[in-house]
Structures are given as structure tokens and as C-alpha cells.
């Protein structure tokens, strides 16, 4: 926030000690709330980094800790420093003298105690490092507009090229590598296709639209608002990963057979060594049962589903409403029976 950021996301982590290990949440910091709670704004944080040490210059004022730096920042020394020009030698000398005087005497009560052992160097702060904080190199609004204009979000993902890349880079070879590739890409690619359809829909007529939607998703199964997604409404959809990724598994199997046949003796010895090392390993990894040709179910934000497959989502909601109505009618039809007591 010392660079002027007003909203910061940090610490991508799991939610709570009992949740699964997958990160799902981030901590949100807003500049106005941070200042109200701690008394520190961007200029104050610049001074803290300069006095106690930061990324650009690890050594600040010798023996000055972050607590003392925070007290000086709350006293307004950071605000005053950032208002001075780097060429204002007299102003910097006066600012440095005031800081040293308050550290030694605590005349204004800015600090919890006096810090007579602290000495402010004559060249503090480093003007170059101060400039890094106060005038960081960022893209201009014109440059950002140019980047936005050049970025085509409608460009389809080149699946074959990406498959070749992971095969060469990560050695995801043959059918096992293809399974790993599909498992990682299919959910993201499905969401991308749903979003792309919502941006540029060139389908004519409800029949053609329903056929297209059925190619993406088989059915909608359930709805939820779970903590792992920040209580965002989600729909659980069933889809077939291989239909989404559209990868030729037969070709992958043929490549794997060719690699096996053309394996050298050194490769065979490596394989034997791998088997020995695995036999020495105390733990065994369970064999993956993932099958990209079988139907899988995933949770997707409801807003994305409704944009990508609107007819299917509308039909599912109508069926859900009808089911609730029929259940209500069955309950109301059950009238309580009263028992007649026999008498003399």
C-alpha cells in the first residue's frame, strides 16, 4: 500500500483449521480501513520501510526497529518527508534534525520512550530509494488502454499446441500424460467455453442453442452456497472432459506404443532403476482412477452457468419449482385422521 494501492489481496490460504488443504480464500486490505485502524497511510509506510529497512535497502537507521518506525510515521514524519523535493537540501536537513530531536528527547510524546542511542545518518534517507517508493515505474493510462485494445479475450485456447508444450516441458507423455493434461485443463476450458458463448453468441434458434448446450454440459445436478467459494452461488454440472478438451486419445496411445518400442537399453535400465527406487520407497502412491471419457461433476459459479447454458439453466429451475409444488400438494393432501372413541 506504500505505492498508493487502495485495495490489496494477500495470503491465499485455506479457510479455517478444519477445512481441506486447498487454498480458497485471501485476506482483503483496504487503505482507508487500514489507516483508520492503525493510523498508517502510504506515506507513513514509506517512512517505516526507510527507517527499519525495506526491499530496496535492507539497512535503514542503525538499530531502529519497526515499532519505533511506526511511532515516527504516526507522528507525521512520513507525510512531511514525502512533501519535500529531493533537491530541497535545507528542508531535508530541517526534517532530519526534527526527527533526531524527537527521538532523543521525546519532547512531543510521539514515542513510548526516549531513544538516545539512535543516530540518524547525514545521508538519510537515500534519495534514490525514496524515489522508488514515491514515484514507482508504472504503466500510464494510455499504455493500459493500448494493452486492453490489443488483448483479445475471445481468442480460443490452442489445445494441441498446449498439449505439445506440457509434453516437452513436463514430460507428460503418452496416454498417462494426456490424462493428466485433460484433468488439469478440462474444468478451466469448460468455464472458458461457457464465458465465450456469453460474449459472442452466433447460434440461431432455441433448437440449435440446446444442441450446443448439450455438447458442453449433460445436465445440472445441484445448487449450493459453500464457504470454500465464499458463499458464492454455484451450480453442479455434469460434463465429459474429453468432449470439452477434444483431444485424440487414440493418437496419444499410438505415440506411447512407439516410444515403448523404440526404447533404448539405457532407457530400459533407467526403468529398472526406477522400479528399484519405487520398491525401496516406504509409501506407495495409489493408482489414479481418473477417466477423461467418463462423466465428471464440478461446481461452477451460477452466474457463469446461466450465461453459458441459459436454456438448460432455465429448464432446470422450472423443473425444480415444479418438484417443490408437487411436494407441497402431497403434504397438503395428507389430512390428519381423528380416532372415534367408542361409548356405551
In short:
The chain has 15 helices and five strands. The chain has helices spanning 31-38, 42-52, 66-74, 77-82, 89-105, 127-134, 141-150, 159-170, 174-199, 206-216, 241-245, 249-261, 265-280, 302-308, 310-333, and strands spanning 7-13, 25-30, 219-225, 233-239, 296-301.
Fold topology:
Blueprint: E1 7-13, E2 25-30, H1 31-38, H2 42-52, H3 66-74, H4 77-82, H5 89-105, H6 127-134, H7 141-150, H8 159-170, H9 174-199, H10 206-216, E3 219-225, E4 233-239, H11 241-245, H12 249-261, H13 265-280, E5 296-301, H14 302-308, H15 310-333
Antiparallel strand pairs: 1-2, 3-4, 4-5
Helix pairs in contact: 2-3, 9-14, 14-15
Would you write up a description of this structure?
With 344 residues, this protein is mainly alpha-helical. It is built from 15 helices and five strands. A hairpin with a 7-residue loop joins strand 3 and strand 4 (233-239). Helix content is 53%, strand content 10%. The longest helix is centred in the middle third of the chain and has 26 residues, at 174-199.
Distance between the termini: 90 Å
| General form | elongated
Task: Report the uncertain regions.
Answer: 277-281
What percent of residues adopt helix (DSSP H or I)? 40-55%
Mean pLDDT metric: 84
> Strand arrangement, largest sheet?
3-4-5
Question: Number of DSSP strands?
Answer: 5
Largest sheet: 3 strands, antiparallel
Beta-strand percent range: 5-15%
Order of helices and strands: EEHHHHHHHHHHEEHHHEHH
Amino acid at each position: 500500500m506504500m505505492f498508493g494501492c487502495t485495495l490489496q489481496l494477500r495470503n491465499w490460504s485455506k479457510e479455517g483449521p478444519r477445512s481441506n488443504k486447498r487454498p480458497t480464500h485471501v485476506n482483503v486490505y483496504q487503505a482507508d480501513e487500514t489507516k483508520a485502524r492503525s493510523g498508517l497511510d502510504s506515506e507513513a509506510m514509506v517512512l517505516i520501510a526507510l527507517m527499519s529497512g525495506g526491499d530496496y535497502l535492507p539497512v535503514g537507521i542503525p538499530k531502529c526497529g519497526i515499532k519505533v518506525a511506526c511511532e515516527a510515521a504516526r507522528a507525521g514524519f512520513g507525510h512531511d518527508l514525502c512533501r519535500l523535493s529531493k533537491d530541497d537540501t535545507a528542508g531535508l536537513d530541517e526534517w532530519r534534525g526534527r526527527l533526531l530531536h524527537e527521538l532523543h528527547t521525546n519532547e512531543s510524546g510521539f514515542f513510548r520512550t526516549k531513544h538516545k542511542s539512535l543516530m540518524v545518518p547525514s545521508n538519510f534517507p537515500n534519495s534514490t530509494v525514496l524515489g522508488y517508493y514515491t514515484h514507482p515505474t508504472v504503466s500510464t493510462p494510455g499504455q493500459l488502454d493500448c494493452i486492453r485494445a490489443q488483448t483479445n479475450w475471445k481468442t480460443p485456447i490452442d489445445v494441441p499446441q498446449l498439449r505439445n508444450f506440457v509434453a516437452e516441458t513436463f514430460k507428460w507423455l503418452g496416454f498417462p500424460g494426456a490424462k493428466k493434461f485433460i484433468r488439469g485443463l478440462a474444468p478451466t476450458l469448460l468455464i472458458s467455453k461457457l464465458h465465450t458463448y456469453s460474449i459472442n453468441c452466433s447460434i440461431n434458434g432455441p433448437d440449435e442453442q440446446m444442441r450446443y448446450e448439450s455438447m458442453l454440459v449433460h445436465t445440472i445436478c445441484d445448487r449450493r452456497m459453500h464457504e470454500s467459494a465464499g458463499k458464492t452461488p454455484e451450480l453442479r454440472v455434469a460434463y465429459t472432459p474429453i468432449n470439452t478438451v477434444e483431444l485424440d486419445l487414440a493418437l496419444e496411445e499410438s505415440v506411447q506404443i512407439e516410444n515403448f518400442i523404440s526404447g533404448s537399453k539405457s532407457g530400459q535400465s533407467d526403468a529398472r532403476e526406477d522400479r528399484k527406487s519405487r520398491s525401496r520407497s516406504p509409501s506407495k502412491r495409489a493408482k489414479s482412477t481418473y477417466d477423461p471419457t467418463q462423466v465428471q461433476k464440478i461446481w461452477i459459479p451460477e452466474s457463469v452457468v446461466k450465461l453459458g447454458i441459459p436454456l438448460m439453466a432455465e429448464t432446470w429451475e422450472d423443473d425444480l419449482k415444479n418438484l417443490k409444488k408437487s411436494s407441497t400438494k402431497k403434504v397438503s393432501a395428507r389430512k390428519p385422521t381423528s380416532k372415534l372413541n367408542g361409548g356405551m
